[in-house]
Write a structure and sequence with these properties.
Layout (H helix, E strand, L loop, with lengths): L1 H7 L2 H13 L5 H17 L12 H22 L5 H24 L8 H29 L5 H8 L1 H13 L6 H28 L3
Helix pairs in contact: 1-4, 2-4, 2-7, 3-9, 4-7, 5-6, 7-9, 8-9
């Protein structure tokens, strides 16, 4: 699980490189520093002190591929800035439903230990509102904001999911949350805000007194 998560969140690296070669957007020294800080924070949280997490299992390769696909998606969204966020949101959920249904029909019945259909239906009263209020609003924000930002920065901002996950896991699941987790959250959050704070400071400094 840790290895797969680390491999997925290499997304900022792929996004930065693709943005440079596909869109011609420069890679600044500040971006490299921000990515290094974010990856260090991720390693701290996941206690990944065993070296570089190379993919070993199918799940690792799926995680790595997912990160690459999201990097490609951010490049496409950046290149096509005229698409409406509502249209992108609608297409996202329609195609997700089609693909999920196809996978369920193809492999769902053959999976050992799969719960009966009644179990799924029993979750709908709370699952549907959660999807509408939480998931769909998050996806809409992603579709609206991603075209406006450098893909590498988008990847860094998405790494704050790790911080949120560590905090919520500590609150709701009783997972440990000590100094290691605090340091990791601070590093990841700082990396996401570094470029914005630098631009804010530079703009204020450039303003006449």
């Amino acid at each position: 699980m840790v290895r797969a998560t680390l491999l997925f969140y290499l997304t900022p690296l792929w996004s930065t490189l693709l943005a440079r070669f596909v869109l011609g957007e420069p890679i600044t020294l500040l971006r490299w520093i921000a990515m290094a800080i974010a990856i260090l924070g991720m390693l701290v949280i996941f206690r990944a002190d065993v070296g570089i997490p190379l993919p070993e299992r199918p799940g690792d390769w799926i995680a790595l591929s997912s990160g690459l696909l999201w990097a490609v998606a951010s490049i496409l969204l950046r290149a096509d800035r005229n698409s409406d966020a509502i249209d992108l949101l609608t297409q996202n959920f329609i195609w997700s439903a089609i693909i999920a249904a196809a996978l369920l029909l193809a492999f769902g019945r053959g999976l050992p230990g799969s719960p009966p259909l009644a179990t799924y239906l029993a979750q709908l009263p709370w699952l549907v509102p959660a999807i509408i209020l939480v998931v769909m609003t998050g996806v809409y924000a992603s579709m609206w904001g991603t075209p406006k930002l450098n893909p590498g920065l988008v990847g860094l901002l998405f790494m704050t999911e790790i911080s949120v996950g560590a905090i919520t896991a500590a609150i709701w699941s009783g997972d440990p949350f000590g100094w290691r987790e605090v340091i990791g959250v601070v590093l990841i959050s700082s990396a996401g805000m570094l470029e914005s704070l630098w631009d804010l400071w530079r703009n204020r400094k450039a303003q006449p007194a």
